[in-house]
Each structure stands twice: as C-alpha cells, then as structure tokens.
C-alpha cells in the first residue's frame, strides 16, 4: 500500500497567552513540522470545543426530486453484481461530497424495477429499510422472504445475507439507512457476495415472514429451540398497522386524560428488539413520532445525529436556525447538538393520520454505549 505523507503546517501566532513571534519561535515550529509534531496549544480550540460543533449542516431533500431521479436511474442504470444496489445516497453539503447524510449515518433512496432482483450479499454494516410509499418488493433475509409495504420498518442487522426481489409490475422505492460512515471510521468492515440466484422457495411472496410469525406477537417471547441471535432484533419487519395503532392509542389516552404521550399532542414509539427491549440495531435507533394538527414539539438538543423522513402530513420543522416546510417523503438531517422542533400544519399532502408523522433514525445506541449521550430540552 502506498502512503502519502501529509505535511504538517504550523503558523506561529501572536496571542495574549503566546510568546512573541521571533525567529527562534519560527525555527521551533519548523522543527515540529519536520518531525511531524503538532503542539496542543495551536489545536486545543478545535480538539476540545466547549460543546459539539458538527461538521455536518442541517439540510432538507425533497422526496419528489429524489423519486424523479431514482426513476430515471431505473431506466438508465442496471442493478446487478458489482454495484449491488440502485441506491442513491444523501450527501450532506459540508461532508466533502461523500455519500454521508451525517458523520455517522447513510441514508439513500433505493429503486427496484418490476421483476428485478438486487443480488444477495452481506456486510458488517447495520441497515434498515423504511417504506414511505408503495409495495411489491420482498427482501429475503437469510432465506426468509419479508414483504415491504407502506409504513413498514425492516431492520437488517449486519452480517445477515440479504437480497431484494420486486415481484410486481410496478417499480418500488424505499429509504435505506445504514451506519456506513460510522463503520468507515472504525475500519472494521467486511463484505461478501452471496449466491447469484435465489431459490424458488425464496422467490415466494408470503404475507408474513417466518421471523414475524415467530417474534411478532406483542409481549410474547417464544420458548423456541431457535435462540434469538445475540444483540440484533430477530424480528425482520415492524408492520405499519401496529405502529399506527400504538400512536393512535397514545393520543386517545391523552385525550381521555390518562397521559401516554411524550408531551401534549406528541405521541412516539421506538422500534425495539422483542428479545431484549433494547434498540433494534446496535448502532442505529429508529422511532416514529406523531404530532397532532396544530401541536408543536419543544426544542431538543442531543449529542449524535438524526435523519428524519416525513411519513404523513405536512408541517414545519426547525433545525438550529433553519425552518423548512415539509411534506410526505421529505428527508432532513439534524446534526449533533442542533436543536430540533416540529409543528404539524395543514399542507399540500393529505394525512391518513390527521397529523404529522415523522420517522426518525439516529446513532444514539453508539453514544449511549460510550456514555457520550446528552440531551437538553427547552430553548437553551
Ligand atoms: C446495501 O446492501 C443495501 O442491501 C442498501 O439494500 C444500501 C449501501 C451501501 C452498501 C450496501 C441493501 C447499501 C448497501
């Protein structure tokens, strides 16, 4: 492997706490450069900021623009071995053109044409699919075909074999979230190709996957001889009907005076591992929030970054100093320690829930495991 040596460049500066810039000081700094040394006193402000200053910026992508480009890619670019997936990633404008929505999270629109197959492979990166519209694709995870329909959340833990198969006559698009940028800095990634063709049994299209039949019963842990895999969720799909009912029940309880919501007019659920109650993936947290028409959430800052997708309804969201109007499918990024709030309003798209439904994923499990998580509620 060839290595390129990045020169160290140091600038002697005059500052109240620094010695005068003399020829001797210049010579000391040239000595540091030659030996590839950097003194702390020139770097400390950047290395140890008083609070997080994300390299990422808040940004919004409109779903209708993404969908048009993905559909055009469907006409022009085949899917197959090598490229593996027709996935088009959100590139945060301040992350150097890399396909990184935030410093830790990948988010992409994936598009599969009628009858197409995305070939089997596996990787250490943890992933999920979230379906904002459409149906007709089955994702096959370790041989288990799992249907994907609007509102469904499908975790895809690292190192499982997976392929996708569009069994219908319509194209389908969905959101992919992965921890690719995080794993990139860990330098612990592995990837393998699987089989080129799925078996006939794997190309069937059952209404429920085997994983849902075993693990998808609320509060009931199967006493199965098949042990739950360590860590990641054994449940491969969280169907919209259950998510929707949970949110509707929270708001109904609140209306009846029995609490249940996060704050007035704001219901929320987290997708969890039914075997442990913990996060659905070891590096990614996923949640669905419902804000009733006219309600507004209190601003919250958190360490770690999030990506949101509007699932239902319209409204405005404020990230740091920026406020956007958003509608179904739109995606936006909340960088670390930027405050976030959302308001539900009548807008361009009808809402089947009567409010603003926001799907959110974030890197909180990593921050919690490392005890780097911090939250601040309110305007401060
Ligand atoms: C991948 O395997 C999928 O399986 C989606 O659908 C996006 C982005 C980079 C690398 C692998 C998928 C991906 C990916």
Question: If you had to describe this structure to a student in words, what would you say it looks like?
Answer:
There is one protein chain. The chain has 380 residues and is α+β, with helices and mostly antiparallel strands. It has two domains: 59-216, Jelly Rolls, CATH 2.60.120; 240-377, Sandwich (Jelly Rolls). The chain has seven helices and 21 strands. The chain has a six-stranded antiparallel sheet. The protein is globular. The relative contact order is 0.14. The structure holds 1-hydroxynaphthalene-2-carboxylic acid (1HN). The site of 1-hydroxynaphthalene-2-carboxylic acid has 12 residues, from β3, β9 and β10. It comes from Nonomuraea fuscirosea. Keywords: Dioxygenase, Oxidoreductase. Residues 199-228 are annotated as: Disordered. GO terms for molecular function: oxidoreductase activity, acting on single donors with incorporation of molecular oxygen, incorporation of two atoms of oxygen. Residues 110-176 form the Cupin type-2 domain.
Labels describing this entry:
dioxygenase, Jelly Rolls, oxidoreductase activity, acting on single donors with incorporation of molecular oxygen, incorporation of two atoms of oxygen, binds 1-hydroxynaphthalene-2-carboxylic acid, 2 domains, 5-stranded antiparallel beta sheet, 6-stranded antiparallel beta sheet, 380 residues, 29% strand, single chain, Gentisate 1,2-dioxygenase, globular, alpha+beta, oxidoreductase, RmlC_Cupin_sf
């Amino acid at each position: 492997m060839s290595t390129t040596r990045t020169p160290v460049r140091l600038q002697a500066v005059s500052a109240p706490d620094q010695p005068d810039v003399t020829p001797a000081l210049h010579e000391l700094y040239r000595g540091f450069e030659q030996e590839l040394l950097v003194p702390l006193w020139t770097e400390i402000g950047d290395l140890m900021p008083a609070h997080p200053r994300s390299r990422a910026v808040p940004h919004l992508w409109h779903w209708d623009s993404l969908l048009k480009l993905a559909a055009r890619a469907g006409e022009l670019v085949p899917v197959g071995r090598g490229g593996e997936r027709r996935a088009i990633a959100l590139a945060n404008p301040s992350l150097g053109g890399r396909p990184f929505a935030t410093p830790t999270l990948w988010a992409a629109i994936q598009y599969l044409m009628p009858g197409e197959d995305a070939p089997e492979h596996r990787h250490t990166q943890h992933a999920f699919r979230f379906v904002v519209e459409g149906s007709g694709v089955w994702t096959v995870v370790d041989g288990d075909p799992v249907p994907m329909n609007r509102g469904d959340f499908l975790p895809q833990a690292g190192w499982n074999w997976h392929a996708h198969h569009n069994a219908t006559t319509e194209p389908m698009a969905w959101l992919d979230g992965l921890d690719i940028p995080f794993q990139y800095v860990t330098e612990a990634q592995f990837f393998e190709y699987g089989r080129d063709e799925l078996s006939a049994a794997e190309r069937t299209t059952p209404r429920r996957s085997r994983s849902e039949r075993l693990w998808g019963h609320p509060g009931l842990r199967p006493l199965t001889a098949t042990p739950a895999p360590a860590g990641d969720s054994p449940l491969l799909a969280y169907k919209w009907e259950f998510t929707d009912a949970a949110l509707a029940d929270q708001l109904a309880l609140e209306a009846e005076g029995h609490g249940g919501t996060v704050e007035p007019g704001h219901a929320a659920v987290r997708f969890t591992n039914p075997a442990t109650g913990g996060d659905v993936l070891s590096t990614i947290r996923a949640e669905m929030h419902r804000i009733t028409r006219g309600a507004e959430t209190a601003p919250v800052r958190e360490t770690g970054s999030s990506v949101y997708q509007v699932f239902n309804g319209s409204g405005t969201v404020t990230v740091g100093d920026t406020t956007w109007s958003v509608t179904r499918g739109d995606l936006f990024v909340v960088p670390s320690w930027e405050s976030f709030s959302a308001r539900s309003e009548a807008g361009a798209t009808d809402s089947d829930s009567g409010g603003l439904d926001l799907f959110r994923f974030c890197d909180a499990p990593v921050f919690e495991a490392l005890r780097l998580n911090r939250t601040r509620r309110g305007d401060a």
